[in-house]
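Lab notebook, page 48
Experiment: co-folding of the full assembly
Goal: obtain a model of how the components sit together before planning crosslinking
Operator: M.T.
Materials (sequences as entered):
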Amino acid sequence: MIREQVCLMKMVFRWFGAHDDSISLEQIGQIPGCTGIFGSLPQYAPGEVWPENDIRALVQTVHDAGLSIEVIESVNVHEDIKMGLPSRDRYIDAYIQTIRNLAQCGIKVIVYNFMPVFDWLRTDLARPLPDHSTVMYYDDAMLQNVSPEQIVEQTSSKSNGFSLPGWEPERLAELRQVLVRYESIDEDKLLENYRYFLNAVIPVCEQAGVRMAVHPDDPAWPVFGIPRIAHTQEQLERILQLYDSPANSLCFCTGSFGSSPQNDVPAALRHFGERQRIACVHVRNIKFLGHKKFQEAAHLSACGSLDLYEIMKVLCDVGFDGWLRPDHGRMIWGERARPGYGLYDRALGLTYLNGLWEAICKSHHCFYLETSVN
Ligand code: DNO
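Observation: model returned without errors.
Model output:
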């Protein structure tokens, strides 16, 4: 069957900023077919307004390097908003101001998550593989023997000196107190708090021309008995229905959503992609090792349990025109970097994904963005 379709997917790379990344914009610009970055201002804690001047300076730096920046990952949601405390209004106002400031500087998508307390979680940040590369690893059974505090300690001490996204000290201050509060918050209550947040921010986004893109729970189940509401297709659909607007969209992460073998990644991508509710995509491969046990893998399909060809094909089928980035890579070739965010394996992943994309688009006779960097 011959299809004529336009596939305007933009291939980009995550960058943590000049002071918080082992990788330079110049290196990113030299990856063939990489046109931009997902950027952030890691110096601002959840609940703080990102000043327009600082955003503008970041955008300028990225543009000066010949790259685009239209996605921010992440503007983290203050815990009081998730817990529905009276102080949430103050933090929502700050969030709204950040949205407006970002929009003023040309940002189109804001990635965030609504995971209580912990963002992504691994039990080992550098598990050695037989080829001497290391990968991030998760084994739920290991969590039975450690406390949340120990996980925080373990994770931050093994980060090679880099801050880890979602593990910012501000976010985890007062951990015990926050955990106690969550004992009285169930899934319904969390969803209600989520609805309250969306009701406030989505109209602002619509007006400003920005899309909020929620990242699925990682891994795709609750941890430490704390509720999580964004890890199945039904749950993600429910979140989109909390406020039915294109501005309420997904950052579809294949490795997070796909960490549960019960989740069908291509089917969910097709479902949400056909409805134009995917603003951006993280493509990561993972390898199932048992019940709630997996390791992250090189992007090549054969290295893990996900079918990356199928994933890219669905994105082509649905005419995905948002931003896509390779997600966590292994640590290879002796690189020392933020776990998951080295240059080498992600660059390999990016070129592999671009290769799949070119082959799929050409064989389906689609028009796609061909970018040369030199
Ligand atoms: C981990 C990342 C997450 C992600 C947030 C989005 O490496 O995928 O920290 O950025 O969950 O808010």
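Interpretation: The radius of gyration is 19 Å.
Next step: discuss with group before ordering constructs.
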